[in-house]
Amino acid sequence: MAENYESNLPTLVCSLSEPRKELQGTRDCYVSYLIVTRSTLPSFPKSEIKIRRRFSDFTKLHEIISRMYQDCIVPPLPGKQRLEYIKGGRFSDEFISRRASLLNRYLQRCSSHPVLHSSPHFIAFLSNSNWNNYVKLTIQPKLNATSKLEDLSDAFLNAFTKLREQKEEYAQQKEHIQQITSGIVNMESILQRLSKLERVLEQNYHELSDQFGKLMAMNGISDVSLDEMQLALRGTRTEFAGLADNSHSLLDALKDIEAYTLAYRDLLKRRDQKQLDVEALEDFLVKLNKEKEKLLNDKPSGLNFMKTVNDLRGINHEESLRKQMEQVDTEINTVEQAIQEATEVSMLFDKRVNEEAQFFNAVRQAEMVDVMRKYAKLHVQFFSAIKDIWEINKQEP
Amino acid sequence: MSFDLENEDTRLSSETVSILGTVNSSSGSYVEYEVHYKGHSVWRRYSDFVSVRTILCRIYPVLIVPPIPEKQSLLSYAKKPVTAKRDTKLLRRRSVLLQLFLGQCLKHPILSADVLFQSFLSQNIPWHAILSAESASLQHPQKEALRVPPLKTVDSDPYADIRPMMPLIMSGTSEYVQSDSVSSITNETGSSSTSSPMPKSGSNPLDSAPDSKSSDGIDCSDLKQTAREIKTLKNLLRNDFEKAIQKFLSSLNKLENCLSKTGTLFHSMTSVQEIPSSHLYHIVANTFESSGLFTTNLNEELSISLYEYVVQSAQLAASAANVFKYRELKLRQRALIHDLLVQEVNITEGSGTTNVQRNNAHRPTAYPQRRSSLFGRLQHAFHDILDTDSSLLGKVPTRFTRGELERMLEAVNEDCKVIDAQLEDELTFYEGCQKEQWEKIASAVQEGLYQWATTNLTCWQRTQRELDDLTAELNHETDINADEQD
């Protein structure tokens, strides 16, 4: 799925395969996956690198990217627990193969992303033999607990604040996302129902072939064609079983696209955040200006309590007033500057969001087509096999 | 409406029968099937078929008469309150099975030669008219069948050689034989010919006592085995097999529903604004809809060629089982009469018995008495005859004379000979029918599934191609975009 840009644009193509169980038998057993990368990027150490990574390496990469590239739609990582309901737990072949295909999709998305594919962290992930070290040295200091707390508190504070200005295009994008996710959910549910029916049919064919077997043992019906019929029914049953098994990987892919769409929604939330920041500052500025107004309009009057208090204290009222004005002015200046910065940030972010949205929509649609292609291929194989089974039978007189 | 039904009968290719279609009667209240035979068509309704089969079964209890589709049960009426004449599926089903019935009957040498059956096929008059005409000339054959005819017929009785001499009208509780039939034995004694040996001349009927070998040399235990196997087959088919098929067909039904719903879902998603997605959903929607249609076709096909034919096969086995049962009953009758005769002989030869003693003679129970459930149809006939001759009520004799018993035993022996002579042919006929039937079933299933697979394959292949094209389009666009980003 790696997009092929123009040849003079540096490319990065990677693929994931060959899951292997490491340290089998010990308590620290884990599964590693082979990643092969070919790249013409100047920052890439060699033109081709092969490296093995395990799932926790992926999670660290994901954490880094999520923090560092807030203005990107970060591809989601397959959840740790999500596939665990499969029999056999996390070391069963089925689980491993499904996880492998999901991790491959993750890599494809990163490697085709205009920003992420040249990220030094991503490149390090693909090439650095001591990933853990890299993580510790380069990134860890920045990932300290306080910054987490700050993010949290910020998020909390503004969680219930609504945007003052609902920009039309982002509202539209949100609606679009809603449409996409509900469509995917519907697709998933009906394809799951189909898959269940396929399993039931498998059972039916099994029973039919048994019944035909019993029939053959009866006299008067000892017919050659029944023997083949039974075999054909068994064969059909196997095909149905295969179809139902393979449909799983496609349902996984659909869920994955759904998760990717949610990452897009998260980006929009972050964009809203930036806008909120600007608006919060602007509101603060308004407040400050009002205060300034108040101070300016402060005239000596007999009823002025503060003046009386200050006189009592022996503070020069005009002097304190002047000092207050100075403070407010400084604050106003800071805030105005902050507003300017924040607005710039927000506008930049908006631009990035639009770029990301464009990339995301293209990728999502391509992925969806790909899912359907694989589904079609599966069915072509299935029906072709069944046709062969019953064609052989047909040739009997 | 007409159906495309081809009769694959090759043995009597000049005498194939087919049901060309159905038509509403002139009054519009029932449906008639057009039976085409030897170039002519007659129109018969379903109840005519029921009637002719009932008659054939009664006249020829020795023959395996092929089954016809069952009547609508109240339950199925309740499920689907559509009258038979409107339900196209039912009409099709019946047409197919009725044609099968006629075809199988034609293959049977005796059934096909039957006068009544022939007129059913060729005389284009209403069936009830034929029946009344026939019965006038043959003295109510269906009831006559159970009277004992003259031991040697002078007038042509086409049923004579097959119709049993001895009626099987014995209920489990009494050993009385219908006095009417007894009186007809005594009445006809005078006209008996030399072909039927009288007890005094020639062979002693006591010699042909029930022993392990039947008169025709067919091994009894072998026959028992066959009878058992036929019963097992019937049970297997009717229970497990039918259930498995029903489950399968219902799964197909669910599958076709699900596929069409999937198609609808994808169709509803084509309204999305992005063109590639819309195109994608459109392609996928069509695929699922087509797939649903193919499954519907398969379901329709198999519900007749698999389900109905299997049921028919089970019914045929039931029919065969009935013949075996009849034979059983005949043998028992023979044994019973034999014992009575022995007893009678002993009584008369051990002289000096009074009538009282005779009346109090111990009635042997050679065989365990069975309840009337075994004799259902025949009991019905019993009541039939009773109805016509109410004067017989209460006049059933308690015993018979030795002479009577000897003649009865003769008649029963003749019957048993007839049965056994016919049995081997019947078995051949039965096995032939079953074999042909199952070959048909097998090939229909093969054809059906092959078609289903092929049509689906073509459809999904086309989808695959369209999706490949779509992918190429998308990639091309992305390349263009990438260029622009340069």
From TrEMBL, chain A:
Every PX domain range: 11-133
Domain of life, source organism: Eukaryota
Taxonomic lineage from the root: Eukaryota, Fungi, Dikarya, Ascomycota, Taphrinomycotina
GO molecular function (one): phosphatidylinositol binding
Keyword NADP included in the entry's annotation: no
Protein name: Sorting nexin-4
Matching PROSITE patterns: PX
Sequence similarity: Belongs to the sorting nexin family.
A single Gene Ontology CC term: phagophore assembly site
Sections of the chain in a coiled coil: 160-211, 271-345
Entry keyword set: Coiled coil, Transport
TrEMBL record, chain B:
Name listed for the protein in its UniProt record: Sorting nexin Atg20
Span list, region Disordered: 180-220
Alphabetical keyword list: Endosome, Lipid-binding, Membrane, Protein transport, Transport
Domain PX, first and last residues per copy: 1-127
PROSITE patterns according to UniProt: PX
Record CDD domains: PX_SNX41_42
Entry-linked SMART domains: PX
Comp. bias regions, Low complexity: 181-203
Pfam families membership: PX
Gene Ontology BP, a term: protein transport
Its membrane topology: Peripheral membrane protein
Organism this protein belongs to: Schizosaccharomyces japonicus (strain yFS275 / FY16936) (Fission yeast)
GO MF: phosphatidylinositol-3-phosphate binding
Compartments, record wording: Endosome membrane
GO CC terms, sorted: cytosol; endosome membrane; phagophore assembly site
Gene3D superfamilies, per database record: Phox-like domain
Sequence similarity: Belongs to the sorting nexin family.
